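Subject: mismatched residue count in predicted assembly?

I count 648 residues in my input, but I want to confirm that the predicted structure covers every chain. Input:
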Amino acid sequence: MMTNAAIDITAQHQDVAPEFSFTASERRVFKAREKVTVSQHADAHRQVTRGPWKGQWDTANTEYLRFPMDLWNLPWIRKIFMCWAPQTGKTQVALNCLHYCIDQDPDTAFYVMSTEGTLHRIKQKQLDPMIASSPRVSHLVAEDIKTSIQFKNGMDLMMAWATSVSALASESARYMFFDEVDKYDPPINLDLGDIRTNAYPHTKKLLYYTTPEDETRPITRLIREEADVLYQYLARCPMCGHYQVMEFDRIKWPQEIRDPKKIIRGKLARYECEACGNGWTDDLRDQAIRRHPSDGDMLRWRPFVGRSIFGKFSEPPDRPTAVGMHLPSWNSPFISLSEVAAAFLRGLKDPDKLRIFMTQHKAEPWVYRVKTTTEDQVLKARRPDLKPQTVPAAAVALTCGIDVQKYGFWFLVRAWARDYTSWMIHYGFLSYWAEIEDLLFMREYPRADDGSGSGLRIWRAGIDTGGGKYDEQISSAEQVYLWLLKNRVGRGCQVWGTKGASRNLASKISIGKSLQHTPTGRSIPGGLSIISLDTNKLKDTVHFRLDKAMAGTAETAHMAAYLHSGTGPDYARQIMAEVKKQDKKGQETWAQEYRDNHLLDCEVIAHALADPEWPGGGVHLITQPRRPPKDDSQAGPKTKTSRRPSRW
Ligand SMILES: [Zn+2]
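Triage response: the counts match. Full output below for your records.
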């Protein structure tokens, strides 16, 4: 049933007999060389000192690691691209190949990691213990400094991280290992590996391995542009013996259960065999991915033929030089099928979590599909029954985003239910600070129903402090700061200064350090903290929720962002003013298409204010519909994890 006879593992190590004379030490090295593959070498000599693979290495425990390791021995293979889920063992593949090189085929090697911190962590926790515990190579260490290890047999291992690697432009290497290559920031030049290994056109080996990020990142582009073949792992049904690539769609759980925690607790997910239809539990899945006596010399990886996110593939050549390998999380014995199902269900509700499911479980790059949404479509998010400037019954709090202009302010008010369903109830333009103060501190919006419930005032407001490089922007930022100093406490509504972060933050929202001076140098007694917003991520959130409201079905209602019945095309145009684009470096960002995007900025702030990441926690913590505050306290919802600026 296997279509693939392309790779003959026995064809390794066709070393050319040396015709010139060697030194005594070189002869010793050659004598020591065994005719083994990387997996055999690891099974014989590799000790793992920590983690799930702890102990004497045994490839049979995770059979899917055998083939990628043994690819290293095939003389025609130059590049291996592994796009794998976390916790599948890809780092172990790299370490075993490296261990093999040190012992069996010493030469110059580069090991590139995403950050300096990762480098030191991997060196300390993985590399150093691997070398120290190996009877084959521990005695060969000649010099071990922070970022390089020299071995007495000529092996020279250099380590670098993404931003340091270009500093080593003159170095050349025969082996290159790129650890978590999609996490490099800024992304590396994809030609880097080729440039470094130019001196070894016929013997170089490059291993790229990572959990994918988005489709502009290296692993997806390398597989699309360079791989001759894309391999997928075959599981073997313990019931009927049928070999198959496991697909997410065959993971099943009781349809009525939508609570991810219940599925994990009850271990309710099963994998349904495509041939016999029997459901595999986690234990049976573990058997299915393990080696089986009936495997014989069959290869447990199959070339993918057809079109996928990684490009179009036809039957592979006999001797591919560049090989892609794709492995989703459910092939790992360390991931329960129920965790996969739970991750999928969480993704239905939240774009951040959908991204986690796609990248960390499916091991596919995240693609934000920019739909060509029209203004009419945006307006489908309107609720005909929701009059402007009224509060729906389910709402428990109001947030207000404000964008400062040269001659006034754009603002937008959003009402929130505890489950993050929301309704834009008011937007517009105001000319004076006094009007903003009236809106934030005096205004009470009535309930949309019969008016018997109490109305709501604005709970949190965020005002963009801007602060650009031009004089007028500096003076506008100055004004906002002075206004915040006067109004931030004691007036019922919590008021915050925000600014858009120019580069991607680790989280959507973060508190800047306390400022002691205004832009023009006036001192701020007690300091003032400005909240940084990752506008790229938040714009994704806004659009994701608006899309749900546009779809308008009961299933998508949860977390949908609705609009009041009087919302006009002016709103829709400003929301559509930015589209997701790819810049020259392949980074995806929101870019302005039309001039006026102010209401989109207001939406970003209004969404951020309700978010769980906001200091003090999210809107889900509010238990009672809020009444107009009786005193001047700023008591928002409190959680144990609540982190507030020290003075605010
Ligand atoms: Zn079966």
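The first strand starts at residue 47 and ends at 48. Marking this ticket as 'not a bug'.
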